[in-house]
């Protein structure tokens, strides 16, 4: 049996969390690089210091990350977005790899959900990358409904990510999310079956 580290990526609102839910229901562990990054931004003294130095004391409130403040600072300015990523990504990538290795002691497949695989240039750390692809107008609709934010804010965030069209050329598997939720789940199961077969050979 071969052991694989697999990244699930896609733009904001693409449906990657739904795909990951399919894998979880099949009994696999799915880490969230987003959650790990948030953990480190609170627990790592080094990262905390760098964020305060770069973005000000208001970056934290009562010991917790001031997400609203940082979002305003970061998403409207590509340079600041790149800066915060450069402070947080290296430690997050290291922690993700450590946790994936632990998961592979228990299972042949370990997954991580991460929006910024290609932006952070970390695809080399994974055996396979699954891209969840969805039309931009659908992504905007989903995020507006989910996060109760303005269309402009969603587009701002999307502009900080490489387009899904570009990512398609680099991904090992592409799951299209352009119809029903049931179709998306069926497509995710199909890709999972293929990866399980590759692991078994």
Describe this structure in words.
By secondary structure, the protein is of the alpha/beta class. It is built from nine helices and seven strands. The strands form two sheets. A five-stranded parallel β-sheet has the order 2-5-1-6-7, sandwiched between helices. A two-stranded antiparallel ribbon has the order 3-4. A hairpin with a 2-residue loop joins strand 3 (60-61) and strand 4. The longest helix has 26 residues, at 78-103. The N and C termini lie close together (6 Å). The relative contact order is 0.22.
Entry keywords:
201 residues; alpha/beta; 5-stranded parallel sheet; two-stranded antiparallel ribbon; 9 helices; 7 strands
Topology:
Elements: E1 4-9, H1 16-25, E2 30-32, H2 33-43, H3 45-55, E3 60-61, E4 64-65, H4 67-74, H5 78-103, E5 109-113, E6 128-133, H6 136-147, H7 151-158, H8 164-168, E7 173-176, H9 181-200
Helix pairs in contact: 1-9, 2-3, 2-5, 3-5
Spatial arrangement of strands, main beta sheet = 2-5-1-6-7
The CATH level-2 architecture is identified as: 3-Layer(aba) Sandwich
SSE order: EHEHHEEHHEEHHHEH
Indicate how many domains the architecture comprises.
Answer: 1
**Computed structural class:** alpha/beta
The residue fraction in helices comes out at 55-70%
| Main sheet makeup | 5 strands, parallel
* Strand residue content: 5-15%
CATH topology term? Rossmann fold
Question: Average pLDDT across residues?
Answer: 92
End-to-end distance: 6 Å
Strand count: 7
Q: Which of globular, elongated, flat, extended, rod-shaped describes the shape? A: globular
Assign the CATH superfamily. Answer: P-loop containing nucleotide triphosphate hydrolases
The helix tally amounts to 9
Any idea of the CATH class? Alpha Beta
| Rounded radius of gyration (Å) | 17 Å
**Ranges with pLDDT <50 over ≥5 residues?**
none
**Oligomer state of the chains in this structure:** single chain
